[in-house]
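Structure in, sequence out. Go:
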């Protein structure tokens, strides 16, 4: 069953067409890779889905509902959450406090509420950060800061998680652990779209990949089809090798 539907989405910045009439769908329970070389439009697509950018054209539906013109907090309230490429924890708050912020009601006038200590522990435990709840973000190694970003997104209880380069800067062991965490999220019923410009590692995790190149959708298909496709090889490294 389709959860997310991207229907002919275009995003222009002045004369630059960052995303050009792109369509694809994501089914409930899937892990989809959104891949393509640098500058191909992957982050722009995420920004359009989260309504951080207004689309120039096209429609975005989530669970059958047209969310194209929603404000970002409405998109989040509908069950979508995103982990950005950049980590932006609040350095003055410990890990637990950073997670708690994302469980507060989505309104500037509601400062009460939020998750209990036990619930915050559970969000941290789902990414393996339960022993670091009292640590300040700048005391954490890079991989833990990235895990904190994932925990913050989890704290909004998403049905669909958009992950922008979640493995960037991690070593092989950390990548394997985070990939296993994403498999657990899937078992918990979370659907995921993962952006990466490298395909190595990601292809073992995803059910399907959508390939962008220069704002266009080049192709989509199962990992094996994508990694052996001549057009994809050409888009990456001038056709020598798929990274
Ligand atoms: N806010 C913006 N204003 C102007 N141009 C932008 C803006 N955001 C992105 N672009 C341009 O849109 C194109 C697509 O960029 P985008 O960041 O979406 O690519 P990407 O595939 O995510 O790349 P990367 O893998 O490097 O993150 C690029 O040419 C980029 O310079």
């Amino acid at each position: 069953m389709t959860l997310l539907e991207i229907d002919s989405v275009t995003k222009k910045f002045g004369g630059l067409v960052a995303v050009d009439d792109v369509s694809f769908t994501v089914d409930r329970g899937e892990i989809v890779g959104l891949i393509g070389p640098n500058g191909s439009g992957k982050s722009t697509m995420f920004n359009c889905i989260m309504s951080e950018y207004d689309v120039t054209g096209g429609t975005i539906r989530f669970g059958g509902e047209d969310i194209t013109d929603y404000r970002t907090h409405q998109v989040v309230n509908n069950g979508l959450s995103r982990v950005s490429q950049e980590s932006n924890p609040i350095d003055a708050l410990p890990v637990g406090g950073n997670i708690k912020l994302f469980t507060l009601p989505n309104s500037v006038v509601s400062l009460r509420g939020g998750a209990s200590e036990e619930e915050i522990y559970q969000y941290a435990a789902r990414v393996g950060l339960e022993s670091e709840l009292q640590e300040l973000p700048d005391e954490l190694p890079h991989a833990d800061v990235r895990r904190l970003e994932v925990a913050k997104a989890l704290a909004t209880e998403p049905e669909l998680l958009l992950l922008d380069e979640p493995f960037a800067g991690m070593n092989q062991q950390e990548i394997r652990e985070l990939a296993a965490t994403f498999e657990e999220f899937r078992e918990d019923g979370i659907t995921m779209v993962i952006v990466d410009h490298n395909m190595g590692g990601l292809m073992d995790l995803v059910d399907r990949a959508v390939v962008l190149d220069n704002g266009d959708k080049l192709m989509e298909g199962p990992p094996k089809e994508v990694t052996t496709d001549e057009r994809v090889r050409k888009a990456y490294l001038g056709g020598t090798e798929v990274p």
